[in-house]
C-alpha cells in the first residue's frame, strides 16, 4: 500500500460514484465532468457537490480562484480519421494563487486520485481559462 493510500481516503460511496461515472460516460455524446476536492480535516477525497457538468464553460465557472481541485472529464471528440474517441482524463487544477499547504495536499493525492478514478491521462492547468483549449490538448493525444 502506498503512503498516499494510507494518508488520503475515499469513502465506499465515493469509490462507487467514481466507478459509475467512468462506466456511464464511455458512451456519452456530450462532455461530462465532475469536480472533486480534499477535505482538509479528514483528508477524504470526495465530490464537490452532486452536479455533473456538460459544458466546459460551466466547469470553469465552478472552479474556485484560490483552491485546487480535481476534475474528471469525459470528452467525446471525432479524430481526424473520423473515428469517435471518448478520452477519460483527470484535470489537475492548481491555481497559482493557492497557498503552499493546499499545493502540497493536492500534489500528494494526485496519483492516488488518478489510479482510483482509473483515468487515462492527467492534464495540469493553473487557470480556469485553460479549460477553453482542452479539446486541442485531447485531440493531440
What do you see in this structure?
- The protein has 141 residues and is α+β, with helices and mostly antiparallel strands.
- Helices cover 35% and strands 22% of the residues.
- Helix 4 links the parallel strand 6 and strand 7.
Q: Percent of residues in helical segments? A: 25-40%
State the secondary-structure class.
Answer: alpha+beta
**DSSP, total strands:** 7
Distance between the termini: 31 Å
Widest sheet: strand ordering: 2-1-3-6-7
Query: For the CA atoms, what is the radius of gyration?
Result: 15 Å
Q: What is the overall pLDDT average?
A: 90
Series of H and E elements? HHEEHEEEEHEH
Oligomer classification:
single chain
Global shape: globular
Outline the low-pLDDT stretches.
none
Strand content: 15-25%
The number of helical segments is: 5
Largest sheet composition? 5 strands, mixed
Write the layout of secondary structure elements.
Layout: H1 3-7, H2 12-25, E1 32-38, E2 45-47, H3 56-62, E3 69-74, E4 77-78, E5 84-85, E6 88-93, H4 100-117, E7 121-125, H5 134-139
Parallel strand pairs: 6-7
Antiparallel strand pairs: 1-2, 1-3, 3-6, 4-5
Amino acid at each position: 500500500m502506498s503512503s498516499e493510500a494510507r494518508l488520503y481516503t475515499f469513502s465506499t460511496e465515493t469509490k462507487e460514484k467514481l466507478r459509475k461515472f467512468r462506466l456511464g460516460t464511455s458512451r456519452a455524446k456530450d462532455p461530462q465532468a465532475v469536480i472533486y476536492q480534499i477535505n482538509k480535516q479528514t483528508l477524504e477525497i470526495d465530490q464537490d457537490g452532486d452536479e455533473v457538468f456538460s459544458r466546459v464553460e460551466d466547469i470553469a465557472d465552478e472552479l474556485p480562484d484560490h483552491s485546487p481541485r480535481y476534475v474528471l472529464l469525459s470528452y467525446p471528440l471525432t479524430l481526424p480519421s473520423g473515428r469517435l474517441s471518448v478520452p477519460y482524463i483527470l484535470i489537475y487544477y492548481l491555481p497559482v494563487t493557492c497557498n503552499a499547504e493546499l499545493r502540497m495536499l493536492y500534489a500528494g493525492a494526485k496519483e492516488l486520485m488518478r489510479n482510483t478514478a482509473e483515468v487515462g491521462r492527467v492534464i495540469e492547468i493553473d487557470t480556469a481559462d485553460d479549460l477553453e483549449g482542452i479539446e486541442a490538448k485531447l485531440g493531440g493525444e
